[in-house]
Design a protein that fits this description.
single chain; 218 residues; mainly alpha; 10 helices
Length: 218
Amino acid sequence: MSEISASMVKELREMTGAGMMDCKKALSEAGGSLEAAVEVLRKKGLKDIGKRAGRTAAEGTIGTYVHANGQIVAVVELNCETDFVARGEDFQECARGIAMHVAAMKPLYLSPEEVPSAVIEKEKEIFLEQLTPAQRNNAEKILPGKIAKFYEENCLLEQPYVRDDSGKVAVKNVVEELSVKCGEKVSVRRFVRFEVGEGIEKQKADLASDVAALTGEV
């Protein structure tokens, strides 16, 4: 095993943001390979995320994104444990990135847990109606995949991150990676998206119906 120098530890720390001792241990475990040491730290960090689940993430920032024409605005609350992390460039950039994602992808829910059971039951009904008689014999095997696809399309944390060209990285993975890097619990608490004119046509239709009812034209 090659000797672990201070410069190697410093370089790994700059790459990952991990503590000095963690970097040294990772390099030792990786036999001096920076690339392997990064993977060691990543695995350790992902494992530690579960331990952070019970912690309180009450600090954070509000990420915003305004579309170039000023007609779409998205706002995201990204939480962490300390104000120090919240003020960091990586944390701020992640909040802005997720806000941009919300503006582009129009998620309806934050996570699968927030989808009302009535919505899922309705989706199941629709899926079943779309199946052929032969497919209905295997409905129990097909439905889980259909529901998973629904979550992927409509839940923010399950959606493929808009800034990742591979389409394999979900928003929840981006949040996990940030948690690993900063060493704190990180979570998206809520989001909102506004688009100019959204819902106006429906409101006009409702108003026309109300007017017709009042004037006796229905």
